[in-house]
Amino acid sequence: MELFPAIPYEEWRDCKETVHRFAQVVGKVRLAASARRNHWWNVPFHLTGRGITTRPMGLLDGNPLFAIDFDFVGHQLVVSVLDGRVVSFPLAGRSVAGFYESLMGALDGLGIRVRLAVPRPFDLPDAGRPFAEDTEHAAYDPQYVNRYWRVLSQVAAVLEESAAGYSGKVSPVHHFWHTFDIAHTRFSDRHIDQPGRVDSVTREAYSREVISFGFWFGDDTFRAPAFYSYTAPEPAGLAEEPLEPAAARWADRGAGHLALLPYDEVRAAADPRAAVLGFYESAYQAGARRAGWDRERLASPGGVTDPYLLAARRVPRVMFR
Hints:
- This protein is an alpha+beta fold.
- It has eight helices and eleven strands.
- The strands form two sheets. The protein has a six-stranded antiparallel β-sheet with strand order 6-7-8-9-11-10. The chain has a five-stranded antiparallel β-sheet with strand order 1-2-3-4-5, with helices on one face.
């Protein structure tokens, strides 16, 4: 199977906008029915062998233990309960309103009572319109949806490999329904006192100093898929640091700088996997160096922290430029 297949933003934009809102509906169910974790780690989706999943949830609110899975091979939404009951329905041919109605009906039929606190999109242009009234977004292209999942899966594998090099606090590799990206984050021990005027989502997400790495499919402000990284809070001089490979650059996003590597540049590389790993590593070294992280102490080359095994392999704990 081709590594990093083409997924041009303009060709599947309408489909992406529909699936993004499907994901937000299910994501808000996950938010309502799961135990809260620091930095909102309970909320994102995880990859499966056929699509993405909420993982099991319920019990805490009196509901049976249940999960919701997007099957992007069979193009179904599957709601399953621990006792073996399953309800599914096709993803194609539905508007967001139709999807919302079908999901709420499936949950009700399984005896799952979930109330969405805000049954509208989060941080999207139509955030004021309830899901139940959105008949505009109804595009679903099975070929592109399956490709979206394959790209997610391939990027996730590279992110997992990149994550192995750090022994400090890290997030899972997970897929956010908010911005429709897949990401992994490294944390330092430094607490960040966010001002009270900052919204509660941001205060929780960035209560520690972080360097984050990910990939997103593009949006109307950046109309192309790309790999990215950022350091928050951004240390002085970050954008002066070198990035690899040559196609990578720092983009000024107003509130800070984003390290960007266009997806199509990676596809054209002789070794796409190595290009992405090199990009993530250069962005980490840039952020960690400028923020004063103890890179040697936090290193785990190849996922190894055992000093005896490291000595036997003669693996340096970290490589400094």
